[in-house]
Design goal:
With 287 residues, the chain is α+β, with helices and mostly antiparallel strands. It has 13 helices and nine strands.
């Protein structure tokens, strides 16, 4: 498929596409949000027109690709909850964090991913690459970035899955969070750095400070959820929400919406606990 065919199928005007292509470096604004460790996450948000264009591209490409079950992030009907469920009631759980994940999904990785996944002409591949990248990588904050992150990890995921399948283990990846669970073979591949080596050979790097391994005698935490015996949320999260409610965080409309979002998440994991927090918030708002 060439660029003109692509634009025609998506019912996009050539003039609009050319404008975005030429102006791409001026169509993002930077936003910083604090991370749990005290550092700052850099987001680059596309403007309205570019965002709409990126969504159209992804809507078209998603129809051509079906990501395997072990890819859990950025896919409809998959979430941190479905990711955590894959690792419930296991003897061992190990977790890994890919360092600087989005910035390391660069033009080379995207070019390889597009070439391996689609029969596109070079002009179309270059066109798509330019419209979904910023400063030579996928920008965290663009609607197209999760798709291309997953696409760029296709070979890496397949290699790790093959290793885990051979060792009778469960593998999943939620964006930059890798989880492996099962029997004593989890300990073996954790200690021999098999995952680290595969990730490194694919142009990424494991954050050694965030590598963890849990036996079933301790809380096994997968994407923020305890998975030892079904799903359970950490007490510290519940206490933070309860504290925010009691401290009147709901008085600010923005904070109130954030609180409601957190409570909704709690309900999706523990319905009864979520209802209790919801009732507490409602009673404080009315008082």
């Amino acid at each position: 498929m060439n660029k003109n065919d692509f634009l025609s199928k998506m019912k996009l005007k050539q003039r609009d596409a050319d404008f975005l292509f030429a102006s791409i470096n001026n169509l993002y604004f930077k936003k910083q949000i604090p991370k749990k460790d005290g550092s700052v996450r850099q987001l680059f948000i596309p403007n309205k027109d570019l965002k709409a264009f990126q969504k159209s591209i992804i809507k078209f490409l998603e129809k051509q690709i079906k990501f395997p079950f072990y890819v859990q992030g950025g896919i409809k009907r998959r979430s941190i909850i479905t990711n955590a469920k894959m690792h419930c009631n296991k003897n061992w759980v190990s977790t890994f964090d890919i360092k600087d994940f989005f910035p390391n999904v660069n033009l080379t990785k995207i070019d390889r991913a597009i070439s391996n996944s689609f029969d596109f002409s070079s002009d179309l591949s270059n066109f798509i690459k330019r419209l979904v990248t910023f400063k030579n990588c996928i920008p965290q904050g663009a609607p197209s970035s999760p798709f291309f992150a997953n696409l760029s990890c296709w070979r890496m995921d397949k290699r790790i899955q093959a290793l885990c399948q051979k060792e009778s283990l469960i593998y999943s990846r939620y964006f930059d969070d890798i989880t492996i669970s099962g029997d004593d073979n989890v300990v073996k591949i954790f200690n021999n750095n098999s995952i680290d080596k595969i990730v490194k050979s694919e142009g990424f790097k494991i954050n050694s400070q965030k590598k963890k391994i849990y036996s079933n005698k301790t809380d096994q935490i997968v994407t923020g959820i305890i998975v030892n015996n079904g799903l359970k949320l950490e007490n510290k999260l519940i206490e933070v929400i309860r504290k925010d409610i009691l401290n009147g965080e709901y008085l600010d409309e923005k904070n109130k919406n954030k609180l409601k979002g957190k409570i909704s998440f709690v309900k999706s994991v523990d319905k009864e606990l979520g209802k209790k927090l919801e009732c507490l918030l409602i009673s404080k708002i009315k008082s």
